[in-house]
Design a protein that fits this description.
4 domains, two-stranded antiparallel sheet, single chain, GMP Synthetase, Chain A, domain 3, three-stranded mixed sheet, 596 residues, mainly alpha, Glycerol uptake facilitator protein
Length: 596
């Protein structure tokens, strides 16, 4: 890599920008002539385009691209190691044993990546056990008061233990997540390389060091300035002057939003719950805590988190009181507002991450303040607390924990994404960021550790949902094909998988054949013995004629006489009529089989 040709923003560059070009060059540029351009590909642009395409391909086709990316990464690491080792062998004066060792490690890693899928899963699992042991070690140091840095050991215990468990139990999922993160990073890096290459007057090379310097220079240009930071801080923190009035308004709006949300949940009204989201002020101190993390203001961080904790406790208490004094129009176990908030998963965390980033960005950019209402609806902080209080009041502690876990997911996700956005958007100056780097890293690391711990149950819930969806899809495909081959006149209406039983609802004029072969196919496809439960719904048309007081039924059940009207019940039926006739039950056909 030729780092000396990195461009005007990079130290050591000898390139000349368009602004520094001679007057004749300016005239040609204004005339639309570009004599300095040739048809030779710009290495920076070419590499950036390849990275963007590779990243987009991976994101669009993860199943197809996973072996391709693994192969490219493995071969690339081995080739890099070979070149590095050869360079160290040739240049005896500059030989580095450490560089050779790292190159050998890269070669081994590349060879491991090229192993078959089961082998790579095993390696991920072993790495998960290693991280798990390190996390347990950090926890033991905290337990026996042998920790040299309590904060660092808390971070290590949380992140390494949670990540280790996920890698041990769900290695394929972790690999897929890593692949996605790598693809996103490739798109971002490729975009930066393209932008940098297009700004240069000649072909240039770009390496990691150049990208780092470009990023630093870009962050310098994003500084908001002290005046704008002061304006934002006045909106986020309840500080003098007017501290009492600010807190009073906040508590009033929180109380009203909780009341509205709780009554909306009791009525199972989505519109009312959305209205409560719009006026809920709970996001303000959460985003304020993220800003305090970035600035290293511990007092602001503590005050913001204490306000959040007090608001959470008050919201749950209000919901419990409302639940005790208000009749429930709809039972909570079938209330959609409750059911949708008691089983959070990774999708909820993804929504909260995006909403937190949008909220922080809207606060930074005064022109986007109107978008905060949409952010409040997307992240839904108050409704989970209302569900927590209502389910606690009824003694449904499992649902209460699920709803509270959803709130914790939103809280931590907003903190994480808002912290990143505040750094990128210039909430903190680069000088202060360097000065407070250790404190900021430790605080942000603590939040990251909490996010990893919360992610653990969410990931398992999501995995359960994914597995259930895959099982249902597999069972539906097999069932549909089986009925097409064995009972073509029956239509498959619904297929579900529940605790080892495949439940099938079909309709039509034909008897259901013996489902033994279907059960065998389903057991083989799902990897476990299954029972099959089939419900048949024949097609019938029932008419009542008021002229002669008769009810007639036309059935397409071919086991009974079809298209022949049969008098089933008369409104003036005699008291001696049988119970079956009085209830309108089907009569017995000539074959002795009840008509349906």
């Amino acid at each position: 890599m030729n780092t000396s040709a990195a461009g005007p923003n990079v130290p050591g560059s000898d390139q000349v920008t368009a602004d520094e070009a001679p007057p004749q060059e300016h005239a040609r540029l204004e005339a639309g002539e570009f004599p300095h351009l040739d048809f030779a590909p710009n290495p920076a642009v070419l590499k950036g385009a390849l990275l963007v395409l590779a990243g987009l391909f991976t994101l669009l086709f993860p199943g197809v691209s996973e072996p391709i990316v693994r192969g490219a990464a493995g071969i690339g690491l081995i080739a890099y190691a070979a070149v590095d080792i050869w360079a160290n062998i040739r240049h005896t004066k500059e030989r580095s044993l450490a560089a050779i060792a790292l190159a050998l490690l890269a070669a081994v890693t590349g060879a491991i990546i090229l192993l078959p899928g089961q082998s790579i899963d095993l390696i991920v699992t072993l790495l998960g056990f290693y991280l798990l042991l390190r996390g347990v070690g950090a926890a033991l140091r905290l337990l026996f008061h042998r920790s040299r840095s309590v904060v660092m050991d808390v971070i290590a215990a949380g992140t390494q233990t949670a990540l280790g468990i996920m890698m041990v139990v769900l290695p394929s999922t972790i690999l897929l997540a890593f692949l996605g993160a790598l693809a996103i990073a490739a798109v971002i890096a490729g975009g930066m390389m393209i932008a940098f290459g297009l700004k240069q007057r000649s072909n240039v090379e770009v390496d990691v060091d150049t990208l780092a310097k470009l990023t630093q220079g870009w962050l310098h240009t994003r500084d908001l300035g002290d005046e704008r930071r002061s304006e934002i801080a006045d909106d986020l923190y309840f500080e003098p002057p007017g501290q009492v009035n600010k807190l009073t308004a906040w508590w009033v709006m929180l109380t009203l939003s909780v009341i509205i949300a709780t009554y909306g949940i009791l009525q199972d009204s989505t519109a009312v719950v959305i209205g409560a989201m719009l006026i809920a002020p709970l996001m303000t101190p959460i985003v304020g805590a993220a800003g305090a993390i970035v600035n290293g203001r511990k007092s602001r961080l503590v005050r913001s988190l204490l306000l959040v904790a007090a608001g959470v406790g008050a919201a749950i208490l209000i919901a419990v009181i409302i639940g005790k004094w208000s009749p429930s129009a709809i039972p909570l176990d079938i209330n959609t507002q409750v059911i949708s908030r008691t089983s959070p998963n990774v999708l909820d965390m993804a929504i909260a991450l995006a909403a937190g980033a949008a909220g922080a960005f809207a606060i930074i950019n005064r022109h986007l303040a109107s978008g905060l209402a949409g952010v409040a609806v997307a992240v839904a902080l108050v409704p989970p607390l209302g569900v927590t209080g209502l389910t606690l009041e009824t003694g449904d502690y499992a649902s209460a924990w699920g709803a509270f876990l959803l709130f914790l997911t939103n809280l931590v996700s907003i903190l994480l994404s808002a912290t990143v956005v505040f750094v990128i958007a210039g909430w903190i100056s680069m000088d202060r960021l360097r000065a407070q780097a250790t404190s900021i890293a430790m605080t942000a690391g603590t939040v990251l550790a909490a996010a990893m711990v919360i992610l653990l149950p969410l990931l398992f819930t999501s995995q359960g949902l994914v597995n259930a969806s895959l099982q249902r899809t597999t069972a539906t495909n097999i069932t549909t094909e089986w009925f097409d081959q064995n009972a073509s006149e029956l239509s498959v209406n619904r297929v579900s998988v529940d605790d080892g039983t495949v439940k099938i609802a079909v309709s039509g004029p034909q008897e259901v054949p013996n489902p033994e072969s279907l059960a065998d196919e389903l057991s083989q496809a799902l990897g476990e013995p299954v029972n099959v439960s089939i419900s048949l719904i024949p097609t019938e048309l029932i008419n009542y004629s008021q002229d002669d007081d008769t009810v007639t039924r036309f059935s397409n059940d071919r086991r009974a006489p079809s298209n022949s009207p049969t008098t089933l019940i008369s409104p003036t039926a005699s008291p001696s009529a049988s119970p079956a006739e009085q209830s309108g039950s089907p009569s017995v056909n000539p074959s002795g089989t009840p008509s349906r």
